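Narrative progress, year one. The postdoctoral researcher (J.K.) led the effort to move from monomer predictions toward full complexes, under supervision of the PI. The following entry was the first complex the group processed end to end, covering 866 residues in total.
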Amino acid sequence: MATFNTSLRESGKTSIIDISGDLDAHTSIQLERAIQDLIDKGRTNIIINFSKLNYISSAGLGVFMSFIDEVRSKGGDIKFSNMPEKIFQVFDLLGFPLLYEIYDDEHKAIEKFQTTAS
Amino acid sequence: MQKNVRLTYFLFLALIISEVLHLAVDVGLFYAGEARAYLVSFGILVLKDFLACASIAAIYLLIRRQIESHALPDAVAWVEPEDAFKRGAILIASIIAFLAVYSTLFNPSDFNPDEEILAAAPQTIYTVFKSHLAFLTFGSYLLSLFIVAERLILFRRLKNTKSNFILMAAFLALGSVAMIGSKKGDKLNVLAIAFLSVAGLMMLVNLFRLSWILPIKRDEKIRAIFLVPLIIGGIAIAFNGFHLDEHFTAYSFSVSIFLEGVAVFGLLYLVVTLFSLLFYLPTSEAFERKSSEVKNLYAMSKFITDVFEEEKIYDSLVSYAREACGGSSSVWFDMYHPYAEETRTAESAIASKLPNLQWRDLNGEYGFFKTVAQQNISLETIQRFSSKADFIWKQVAEKKSIVRIDDVENDVRFGALPSAVKQFWRRIKSNPASSNGIGSIVSVPLLARNKLIGVLCVAKDVEYGFVKEDLELITTFADQAAVAIDNSRLIRELIDKERLQQELLVAQKIQLRLLPQSQPTLSGFQIDGVSYPAYEVGGDYFDYVQIGERNTTVGIIIADVSGKGTSAAFYMAELKGIVQSLARIYPNSPKEFLCKANETIARGLEKASFISALYGIIDTERHLLHLSNAGHCPAVVVQGDDARLVKMKGLALGLDKGALFSQHASEAHIELNVGDVVVFYTDGVIEAVDKHEEQFGYERLMDVARRSRQKSASEIKNDIFNAVNFFTNDGGAVRDDLTIVVLKRCPV
């Protein structure tokens, strides 16, 4: 089973978290920590890049749910990008596209953050 | 017990009888004017010796029994040497006093000097009494000395010790027996000389059995050194000052030989004892220290069994360490808390508020130390010290090594060294307040399985207070305690795990009860469902609800609660309650049902949780299935030769409080003909993977459903389940709970 990893990139005021491997009940703690760190630092423009994610369980989805209210109340957002088809199906099935902005390309998400800010 | 008492009485009686008879004989002889020893006939002398032997035997046994009965249960020597010396000194003093009083009151009471006409004859009748009293008091005293010496000699006996002593006593006794019937002035016969010579040799062998001296304490030895000469002097005074040798001879020649032998041996033994005491005195402190170390280590090893109270182990460790390093040392134990990975900064912040914090790693890499047990030092003092000497804790946390500071005042690690003159001045001044009374300190880490548990700090108020042995001992204590603490933690972990397991079992039971216990019977329809949790407690749920009075409308729900374990089981219970009550309120519209269910559930769920659900209402009269989907896997419908997914938009329950959910919820209505099959399932089916990480997927599911459509609902259900199992069999995995519900319209 592929292990889970997060890595952080910065693009202006936007933070991009690349996630790879399997995101399930166990590994979701890592992602939680990564997002919490960003919120603590006041960086609430967050993009999650899914390009290397292999699997996501319902607990993994729960991570976004648990932060979204806080991030949005601070004027930021969590946006998703580069989702593989398999992952998108899971999001789509549960109706996540109604709650989150999902982009094919990371740059579009960054642009979106910039335009909302200005 | 009864027998013992009777024996004592018997011995006492024997003593009195023989003593009275003996006295009567002596008194008779005195008045017969035959007391001039050389006139007394052989027969009477033998009688006297016989009676004397009986007396001495009775006294010996009585004293022996007395001492033995007063011994502590496990005292090999029966007596405490120091106590015995004290009593011995007091006793000999009182005997001397008694004899002195007697001699003054009844003067003269001795024997005429040899050169007079009435040589060796008693001066008065009081002489006779004095002989007997001397025998009863001083004779008893010598016998007690003999018994005590025996017990001391037998302490830590070797193989031959006992036989050596018995031989000595036996030859002494034989020597006396050989002289039965002799009178004053007789020469020893050959036999007696032989026996007594052997006895003398055996004495030499026995004299140097002094193993009892080593274990007694230093101050006890000192007291003994003063007491032993008192006893030696007392015996010498009693013998010479009161002519007791003459009295003994008059009492019984043979017994007097025995008693004199005993006296000689006793005196020699006391002299040897005295010298040994003097000799062992300087080393006794070292010996005591060693033995207390052993004792402490033993006690320490016992607290390994104190597994349920970790705090107790800290306290014991601190007090043992203090005992081992001397009462004036200060000891404390700081527990180590490594930061948990996810909450480093938060924990560091919390730690900074602890009253007993000694050190925390500001970089969030290691953890923090807090004092949990201390002795002979206050928390404030430790804190003041640790604020200056934080490198100690840092080194322990980083390197897990011992930190030793021999001279706190002049150690480089405390910053710039003062000038040599200043150092010298400081030393002379020796102002301990400046370093909180800590002159030298040793900090030993407690390690268990290479994990740091804490650090034991031992401080002394003097510089260079620790020698290598101290360090070794402290390290040993630390190691022992580390094992004990580790054990205690492992056991607690086990207990917690067990408790969790128990909790899961309860949740599992609850969950099993939530699932339908039987399938509903519907005219023209078959239903069967099954749910396999991936772990003890799953998040999948399915249920049937009978709507309306007649058996014509039935609701089917299948749902997947995000998250696993106990919380999922409780959400499921909540969901079941909602389903059972709402289904009857919204008998026609599955969409309205889900909207209402979402409103109710969104309030109770935690933020990160949600429930995907698919709800259908079967109308058996019109052969209709009304479906609505809340973020769940689409139902598979097999009609004729064709299988398809009923895809519908919809949010999962609990993601949104209301507006968005109802805005996007939709409904589908499917007319079911005879032979049509509908499959409800959870993502466990779709996401099951084979060894290449390929998912089972929708196509395979539809394929199986289509191929099995001719079979009964339960057979179709089994086929799907088997297909998934077969797919994952060879190195794949079912990652999630797996639930399948099959509905089939069959001919009536």
